[in-house]
Amino acid sequence: MPASYDTLVIGSGEGGKFLAWHLARSGQRVAVVERRWIGGSCPNTNCLPSKNEIFSAEVAHLARQAGAFGVATGPVAVDMRGVVARKRAMVRDLIEMHLEQYRASGAALIMGTARFTGPKAVAVALNEGGALDVTADRIVLNLGTSPAIPGTPGLRDAAPLTNIEALELDVLPEHLVVLGGGYVGLELAQAYRRFGARVTVVERGPRIAGREDADVADALARLLAAEGIDLLTSTEVASVRGRSGEAVEVAVRSGAGTAVIAGSHILVAAGRTPNTGGIGLDLAGVALTERGTIAVNDRLETSAPGVWAIGECAGSPAFTHVSADDFRVIRDNLAGGSRSTRGRLVPYCLFTDPPLARVGLSETDARAGGLDVRVATLPMRAVLRTRTTGRSEGFMKAVVGPDDRILGFAMIGAEAGEVMAAVHVAMLAGLPAAALRDAVLAHPTMAEGLNGLFAAVPAA
């Protein structure tokens, strides 16, 4: 006999698990089907594990620089087994935290692979063996995404690392070749360089961090190059030979000609693919977009009645904090509200050291949209807090409209994510740039630099 629920969530990622726990606590019969990662990718393979190992790399870097702060440490060695063990311990604690939430809420967690057999009907191949037929009045698709592997000749045969395998490496690569100069590639490139590996980043675009303004991306490139990372931009990967973990040869071509990069490991950081194939969405009447994401409206409803989608698989920006907001959208609409995904002001951070944070429009996007903007920048060395820490790399940047409305903010510098949050809140509140220019901000903090930044905004 099939199991019947009020709500079935397929996938246990951020937004889906929050919705399941919420609905179960409100008295509904709720089940979550999860193939492998309890809690989704964020606590297991992506956000938190990567930041855990990145922090270990930062500790190694600071230890090597300790002499500049009057601290004697002696030779510094990195134990990759210890790095991975620390990360795994964190993941175990997070999984147990999630299991406790399932127990406390009453939501059922079914470990297995789901496939639609018809509208509101799902067959689950259980991980422990056997199968379970499930029906539900409401179904929420929280399918997530997977690392994309380009069809470059020889790349798949080389068994390249993705972020998942890279965070399980308990040996230090001799030479890590990173394919992709976006967020994942740059974060792990810097971390492994600080662990002691030689690192080369190959980016097909004209610069790394291609979604950023040129001045921001160029500043980041200078910082990474100064640490000894080789950055090859406007460079295509033609083919790959060998096997990652043993020896590889990466043939590349650029305006300068062709070359072969000899490395020990390859990390592919070339985007992500939605997990929407092979689960029978057509049998449920769920339509896809041309990009393979689930087609939804601004309430996250799919083309099938009673079926919602949440997070990256629905085309939402690929951030855990956006998936959490998707949960709020669906939660409020199920309760009779009218919450929408339109007009969300989404912040994001690149967790290099120093980090890059941005919210709102870049200068490039604002000008491309025909907006009359005023732009100000402030070097981090002008913020007195950096005199105490020695962490003076980078700058702040503000994009302001003619009505003194803050349209965007970017920062590359120590504590960038925390400083950005202050600007983000000001933007949500509709405060003018002058409010941050004249605010009494604590001294000496990094956020105090906002006074100087917004004081530098040209007069309208």
Question: How much β-strand is present in the residues?
Answer: 25-35%
Shape: globular
Helix content: 25-40%
User: What kind of sheet is the major sheet?
Assistant: 5 strands, mixed, barrel
- CATH A-level architecture of the largest domain: 3-Layer(bba) Sandwich
CATH class of the largest domain: Alpha Beta
The count of strands amounts to: 20
Spans with pLDDT under 50 lasting ≥5 residues? none
- Give me the Rg, rounded: 24 Å
Tell me the span between the first and last alpha carbons.
70 Å
CATH topology of the largest domain, by name, is FAD/NAD(P)-binding domain
User: On the 0-100 scale, what is the average pLDDT?
Assistant: 97
Q: Tell me the count of domains.
A: 3
Structural category? alpha/beta
CATH homologous superfamily annotation of the largest domain:
FAD/NAD(P)-binding domain
What is the count of DSSP helices, taking H or I runs of 4+ residues?
Answer: 13
Strand order of the largest sheet: 1-2-3-4-5
Keywords: FAD, Flavoprotein
Pfam families: Pyr_redox_2 (PF07992), Pyr_redox_dim (PF02852)
Family: Belongs to the class-I pyridine nucleotide-disulfide oxidoreductase family.
Organism: Methylobacterium crusticola
Textual characterization of the structure:
By secondary structure, the protein is an alpha/beta fold. The protein has three domains: 3-147 and 273-334, FAD/NAD(P)-binding domain, CATH 3.50.50; 156-270, FAD/NAD(P)-binding domain; 354-455, FAD/NAD-linked reductase, C-terminal dimerisation domain (Enolase-like, domain 1, 2-Layer Sandwich). The protein has 13 helices and 20 strands. The chain has helices spanning 14-25, 41-44, 47-64, 80-105, 163-166, 183-195, 214-226, 320-334, 363-368, 385-389, 416-428, 433-438, 449-455, and strands at residues 3-10, 30-34, 108-118, 121-126, 131-141, 145-147, 175-179, 198-202, 230-232, 236-243, 247-254, 257-263, 265-268, 272-274, 307-309, 348-350, 356-360, 374-379, 395-400, 406-412. Strands 1-2-3-4-5 form a five-stranded mixed β-barrel. A hairpin with a 3-residue loop joins strand 10 (236-243) and strand 11 (247-254). Helix 3 (47-64) packs antiparallel against helix 4. The longest helix has 26 residues, at 80-105. The radius of gyration is 24 Å and the shape is globular. The model has no long low-confidence stretch (mean pLDDT 97).
